[in-house]
Amino acid sequence: MEHCKKSRRFLSLLLVIVFMLSLAGCQSSGDEGKPIAEKPSETKIVTDLLGNKVKIKANVEKIAVVPIPWATIVYAVDGSGKKIVGMHPSAMKAYQKNILKVMAPEIANANSTFVDNNFNINYEEVAKLKPDLVVIWDYQPEIGKKLAELGIPSVAIKYGTLEDVQNGIKLVGEILNQQERAAALIKYQQDTNSYLKSKESTLAGKNKPKTLYLRDEQLQVATGESVNKIMINNAGGVNVADEVTGDSWKKVTMEQVIAWNPEVIILSNFSEILSEDLYKNKLSGQDWSKIEAVKNKRVYKAPMGIYRWDAPCVETPLMIKWLGKVFHPDVFTDYDMRADLKTFYQNYFNHTLTDPELDQILSSQLNPDLKI
Predict the structure, then answer these.
(1) Is 87 in a helix, a strand, or coil?
(2) Which residues contact 244 (CB under 8 A, 6 or more apart)?
(3) Three-class SS state of 279
(4) Quick one: fold of 43-187?
(5) 233-267: per-residue pLDDT in tens?
(6) Cα dihedral sign, 62-67-71-76
(7) Structure confidence by residue, pLDDT tens digits, 46-92
(8) Do 44 and 179 touch, CB atoms closer than 8 A?
(9) What's residue 2's pLDDT?
(10) Which CATH number describes the domain made up of 206-366?
(11) Nearest 10 degrees: CA dihedral of 293, 296, 297, 303?
C-alpha cells in the first residue's frame, strides 16, 4: 500500500515536471512556434563613396568630420549637431558667424583642433574624442589605415559634382539611420535640378554674363574644375576661369582678370573681402577700376546659411537659384528667394527664419544694389 502511494506521488511529480517543461517550451517559442527574434546586431556595414565596406556601430553617437562642409551635412541629415564631436577649423570659423550657431548651439562644443587647415589629423587628439566614426576625404587612405589601427572606423567621401554631394547625403543617412531625411534632401536637390533644366531653352537665347568667382584677396578664383563652375552654368552664366585647371581654386594674376573682364563678380565667404574693396580699389597691387563688373556695380557677396554657399552642400540648390536671380531676374521669375529660403529652413531644419535672419543669409546689407 505504501509502495502504491509512493508510486502515485512520483507519477504526480513527473506530470508536474512535464507540464512545466511544456510551458517553458511554449515561452521559448514565439506565437505559432516561431523562434524568438535574435538580439539586434550592434554593428552594421556601410559602403563609402570609394566602394569600401566599413563596419560601424549600428547606432553611431559620436562623429568627427575632416572635410569642411560635411559637419553641416551631418547636422542637416540628423536634425541635430549633438553627434558632432570634431570638425575642421574652417568649418568652425564659418559656424561661429552664421545662423547655425543659433540653430545648433551644441556644435560649439565640437573639437576643431584634431585636424589642421591642410586636413592633417592629430591622432592622439582624435583618440581622446573616442569617435564612433571619422569622415575623411577620398584621397586620404593612409589616414584611414592609421585610424583603423586605433580601432576607429572611417568612411571616405568625395565631391566634384552635384551627384557626389547627393551620394554623400545618402551615405550619411545610412550611417545615422536617417534614410528618410537624407532622401528628402536629395529629392529637393534633384527637383531643383529639374527646374533649372526646364529653363535651358529660355536661357539659350540670352546673353550669359561672364562671371568671376573670387575666393579671396590673393586672387584665388574658381576654376574650370570647380563645383562653382557648375553652379554658374546651371544659373545661366559663364565662368571666365574655365580655362584654369588643376584645382578647384587657383591663384591668377590681375592681368589675367583684366583680360577676362568679367561682367559679374561673386565674392566667397572664405575671406572677408567685400564689394567695396573692389569698388574703391583697396587691394594692394590690384586695379579693379577697368573691370566691367566693378564699373557697373555688379560685385556681390555670396550668401551663407548653415554653411558657406560657395562650396557644395545641402543648400547648393538655393545658391544656384540665387545666382539665377543675379544673372537673369527676367527669366527666374517664378520663385521668391526669401520665400524659398523660409520654406526650406522650415521643412528641413524645423526653423522659422525671421526677416533679419533672411537678410543675414542673403548678405543683404553687403549687397545693397541687389534686390533679392
Answers:
(1) coil
(2) 221, 223, 224, 250, 252
(3) helix
(4) Rossmann fold (3.40.50)
(5) 999 999 999 999 988 999 999 999 999 999 999 99
(6) negative
(7) 999 999 999 999 999 999 999 999 999 999 999 999 999 999 999 99
(8) no
(9) 44
(10) 3.40.50.1980
(11) -50
